[in-house]
Amino acid sequence: MEILQDRTKATREVRHCSASPFSILTLSELQNLLATSASAVSNDNAINSSLSAADARRRMEEAFRATAERPLFIAEAHAAPQILPHVYTSSSMQQGNILSYTGTKYSLPVGTTRATQDYYEEVTVPPAKAVPPRHNERLILVTELDPLARGSFPGYTNLNRIQSIVFPTAYGSNENMLICGECIDSQGKTDVAMLTVLRVIDQHRDRTSSQPIAGTIAHDGFKIIYVHVFSLLSPMKALAAEIVRKLSKRLQWLSIRVRELTGDMQMTKAEIAETQIIVTTPEKWDVVTRKPTGEGGIASACQAKIKLLIIDEVHLLNEDRGAVIETIVARTLRQASLLVETSQSVIRIVGLSATLPNYIDVAEFLSVSKQTGLFYFDSSFRPIPLEQHFIGVKGRSNTPAPKRNLDRVTFEKVSQLVREGHQVMVFVHARKETVKSAQALREAALIEGNIEDFSCQEHPQFNFFRADIGMSRNKEMKELFDSGIGIHHAGMLRSDRNMMERIFQARAIRVLCCTATLAWGVNLPAHAVIIKGTQVYDSSKGTFVDLSVLDVLQVFGRAGRPGLESSGEGYICTTEDKLTHYLDAVTSQNPIESQFTKGMIDAMNAEIALGTVSNVQEGVTWLGYTYLFVRMSKNPTFYGMSREEVIGNPSLANKRALLVTEAARRLAEAQMINYDMSTESFTITDLGRLAAKYYIRHSSILIFNEAFQPKMTEADALAMLSRSTEFDQIQVRESEAKELEKLMEIAPCTVKDFVLNREGKVNILLQAYISNARIEDFALVSDCAYVAQNGGRIVRALLEMAISRKWANVTAVLIGLSKAIEKRLWPFDQPLKQSHLKAEILYNIQRWADDYTVAELAEMSDVELGETVHLNKMHGKAILEVAKQFPTVRLSYKLRPLGSDLLKIDVCIKRAFNWNSKVHGSVEPFWLWIEDEEGVTILQLAHLLFRQSADHLDASFIIAIPDGQAPPSLTIRFVSDRWIGAEDELAVPLDELVMPRKANGHTARLDLPFLNVKALQYPLLQEALSGRIFRLGAIQTQIFWSIIHSRMHALVAAPVGSGKSTLARLLLWKTLFHLPGDGFALFVLPRKSILNEELAEMKNVSAALGFAINFATASKLLAPTASKEIRLTTPAHIVAAMTRHEATAPILGLSLVVCDNIELLDPLYELGVSLLLHATQTQATRFVGFTASLNDPVDIAAWLNVDAQALYNFRPSDRDQALSIAARPFSIPQSATLFKAMARPAHAVIAKSDAPAVIFVPSRTQCRLIALDLITHCTLETQHADAYLPTHLSAEDLSPYIRRLQDVSLADFLVKGVGFFHRGIEQPDRSLMLQLYSEGTLRVLMVPRDAAWELPVRAAAVVVMGTQYVEIEPETDTWHVRDYSLADIVRMQGRAVRHGAQGQFHLFCQAEDKDTFLRFLEEGLPLESKLIGSKELTAWYAHQRKEGAIGGVTEGVQALNFTFLAKRIVRNPAYYDAAGSRDEFLSRLVDELEGSSQNDTSART
Prior knowledge:
Elements: H1 2-19, H2 27-48, H3 53-68, E1 87-88, E2 113-116, E3 120-125, H4 147-151, H5 161-172, E4 177-180, H6 186-202, E5 223-228, H7 236-251, E6 258-261, H8 269-274, E7 277-280, H9 282-290, H10 297-302, E8 306-312, H11 322-343, E9 348-353, H12 359-365, E10 374-377, E11 386-393, H13 400-419, E12 424-428, H14 431-448, H15 451-454, H16 462-470, H17 475-481, E13 485-488, H18 494-505, E14 511-515, H19 517-520, E15 528-532, E16 535-538, E17 543-546, H20 549-556, E18 568-575, H21 579-586, H22 596-610, H23 616-623, H24 627-634, H25 643-648, H26 653-669, E19 673-676, E20 681-684, H27 686-694, H28 698-707, H29 714-722, H30 737-746, H31 758-770, H32 778-804, H33 808-823, H34 839-848, H35 854-859, H36 862-868, H37 873-885, E21 889-897, E22 902-911, H38 917-920, E23 923-931, E24 938-947, E25 952-960, E26 969-976, E27 983-989, H39 1019-1025, H40 1034-1044, E28 1050-1053, H41 1060-1074, E29 1079-1084, H42 1088-1105, E30 1108-1111, E31 1124-1129, H43 1131-1140, E32 1150-1155, H44 1163-1175, E33 1182-1187, H45 1194-1199, E34 1207-1209, E35 1219-1226, ...
Parallel strand pairs: 1-10, 4-9, 4-10, 5-7, 5-8, 6-7, 8-9, 11-18, 12-14, 12-15, 13-14, 15-18, 28-33, 28-34, 29-31, 29-32, 30-31, 32-33, 35-42, 36-38, 36-39, 37-38, 39-42
Antiparallel strand pairs: 2-3, 3-11, 16-17, 19-20, 21-22, 22-25, 23-24, 23-26, 26-27, 40-41
Helix pairs in contact: 1-2, 2-3, 5-6, 9-11, 11-22, 11-47, 12-24, 13-14, 22-26, 22-27, 23-26, 27-32, 29-31, 30-31, 31-32, 32-33, 36-37, 40-41, 43-44, 46-47, 53-56, 54-56
């Protein structure tokens, strides 16, 4: 029975240990447990064999020997650990870093003791033994370093031991590194980081230069990102500034710029360009790398230049912020792998950390080589050995007992230490607590009668310091000094803090009660440090949390005085239930686990928004870069997996796929992505993009989807905002109830359905923040700051959500609320409160002039203003100055109908305020939109920027008018994005608007047999065309007889690719063939590039037919000819020629005028053709026009005198070739972010195409930037380093072509299968690009907008990436976002029309433009005259008046009667503001031209 009881007892103890795998065992406890277990086993065996004492003893000894050969932890058997060269530890067990998957840990160090008292339990960990230097170790002298490194270590004689150990790897290689050890202080980390920084700098030097070192560095060739993970108690701003200061000071001699990027800070493009090192936080860098504009412009500008990423305090992976660290590292590792494949560029990652238990796992996560890049130093490397005490005070939670016992044990330990003559620093976690703890120590010492132990009155400088303290106004500091106790916290005056630091350093006080900020700031060591309590208020969570391990290690780092003492002591006093946690964490007992699953859904949404994850497989790959993946394979049970799952699927592909699909499902439920389960693909939605941009959780998006409404008041919006899960951490405490109720009473907006819960508290605090209400409770102050910081961000996200949904009412409300949080003013507050006016003036304005608008105040004089506000003229002058600087505008508009059911509204925004750079900065952003009559729906919207150089801005909006029935009115609304009260609106009445009549239907395309070229009845031409044209197309056949075999004036409006140009050439040749004698035909082409293309096409055939063909300039255009000739010309030459030609003189020999591409009609084109019509009105000259499909060709036909039966207007879809058209809307404004978002779908189009593709982009600059994005996506998807280069080719195969390049930088793109075409590239290179494209070597051809009309090749797929471009006025440097012309888009569409094969046309455009573009692409283009107000018309009229060709108004009107304008104003008068009859309008126009002509004459005189 006893034997069975012993076995049961041992089994129970073992089970207890297994059930609590994270409990800590001292060495003696472990030995006792093993002894008991061995005894039980022995006794059990004795039942079946011998029960003799000798046998039992023998079996016990065997068990002990077997146990002694095992490691001192309970674990499965493992192979001998790998010996790592750079692991330095006094414990042999750390070498190899073995942890069992069950979570069993190492035992505590030998010598650890555990003592239990009545009111606390204490575990004492002795100092680690020093690790002796290895045989190959030596300190590196600074004199041995090269000049670059030597100059960056001023004042050093040698590197310390750790720096010397890491030096060969840090400075001599590009290896990723992990350096961990609590012995590395802040200066040591700076020095280690400095070595890797210097490595990057050294690799960007011109060693052949004779300049000083700073002059040899390519400063714009690299960027270094220093990510510091700050703890809760660390002063983030101060520490970031300190890192910047240290790095800047050390690298100043190299002209290296270091800047901080934390919190709400941003960097301008100029600052980005001139900065080499950016110091930031994980959250900030995550935000920055999520978006390529604004803050994200840094990531976009730096992406290819980032060479080094330093992550400081990487051991915080196991805390809440660890998910963000994993996110940025995974993103960087993917980017690094991609850059290696695409450009051979490398991003080095260096992790700096405190001691880590499973450092090998972290090294694997950071892609660090265990043999070369992993460095581990345990506490034995501390300069002062540290004895650590872990104290757990007893007492039930939520009772006074723990607090009482905490005070008691703190006093006991402090008393013991001061009795031994030591100085002690007591760290607490609130400013008020420093005074309370100090007073409690003094009172306890008085009661115990040992106050003399604390006194320092015998100190030689005691009276001197006492006199200094007597000068302070800090009463508590003065009272405590005589007792040998001091206080220190950030709320004290700087002078008082400095005094305390001096006194403590001089040992004139024994005890210093302080906050942890002192541990992070001044280097003020003491023999012992005591952390009193481990509950810290976290304002970001609105609750108390455990003190972080990083803060504990930082405080313990203050224990021991180097050079003065041989040891130090660190005490942490916590509650009994937290004792094991801190013992595990500080002594590195438990493995660092991943926290990534907590933030994975939102992190994946960010990657989808970036375009780096577009399907499940890419999501699986992305997860492979995370620390989660590393730990799942090592400790699967922690992540809900069985060991068998890992054995059966070592890559964890199934588990990763499960995580990705579950995250995708959750995101799809929140409408943040579109998840196609059949293809397992993801596409981001507006909601998802906004969530990624503004760091909004998916759980909050779910709430917004439910609560968001088209009409909401400020109270509604605040109620919805307060429900956001970003505020889940906010706790409601009973002690706050009364103050919250008082704050609610003064809140301007009703707190709906008020209950004192989280939502109600957030609502009240946000209103209190805006109202600048005074808050007494410290915790409420912190909560209020947290609510305001996050509230502003969330409101901005809600605003963009409202805009994307086109909700006018709630958009206006949220803009006001966003500005209210930023300015801390309500929309109903006096707008001039945003100025620098004194409080007295603002009070009088509110009292006496609150009913006046700012614009009305700006109209007054300074005297009137002074009198109005009951102050003097000087005050009035100050008010007038700020009133005139307040952003106000004057709105005007013009209505421009584009058809029977489309209305274009041109809005002019004129600046009506004085610009002050100090007040307005470089730009003033504002919103401009048109809303419906009810004010519910935004019909069109724009976000515009005023610059100092611009006095006005123009914006155009196209509004649909269903069935041509305009609503009674619309509203134009202007709202500043910064200034409260800077708003305006303008009603747009449409009652009297006359829309043009709906044109007759399109010409039906008939199903006719295709004609053969024999129908030309011109054998010589048929022979010349043999091999080129065999038969005519459907539209060519239908119109052939009217165009070729008649003399009727004709107009052909047909889709691109329908053969219009071919028919025009046939017409020209056939017309000359039938001429009885000599004569010529004019071929009018709107652009020189088109003319050159036509000239090349027609030259050989014309020569074969015996016809001359030439480009005719103005001097020869109208000259008689002695042969049959085709003259190609442009409108500019026609106007110049006609200006010299006598108006009444005939144009001899002109038989035919062919006007091509009439859709490009501009003032010169219209003027030139009108002059030809006027000059040939009495002769038999035929006019034939060709244009893209039009929505209303009637007036163009009338202008060209086209016969009714010769007017053809086919639908754009009536082409012979198959062409699919797809429009993809984007709601992102014109920016780099937009093109980043477009890159992924553009790549998808290219990937699906069976032949090369053409990508149209807005500008030449963007060609290369977008090409890099496309290459990135292709490489990520295909894992093919050559990107778009056909698989049967390699980069070496292109060597002969690359050698021919004049611009060698193009080679990097050619080897990836991407080329460019525009005039910025030399002609030989352009020709080479076209050759390689035609051969299929280049699968992608990047073409800017302005080269669309010059591109001579077609493509299987054409993608138009964006339909807007930026135009800069050279005189004012003002930026304008312009829309592509419809004709440009049709031209781009035409490049996808292929003979004999299907083409694809993909239009990526703004969401609000999608329907308009599709409408015109389906129905035909609108065409209006641009003559009015044009400089071309004005100049021509002035010249005609000067030469006497036009004698007066009547003749001027007669001349204008031949223009397209004269025809068009009858059918669409509203477009031209034409009141009255046509003649009256033309008469007024001539009057204006007369005025301009006279002014021009006067100016010349």
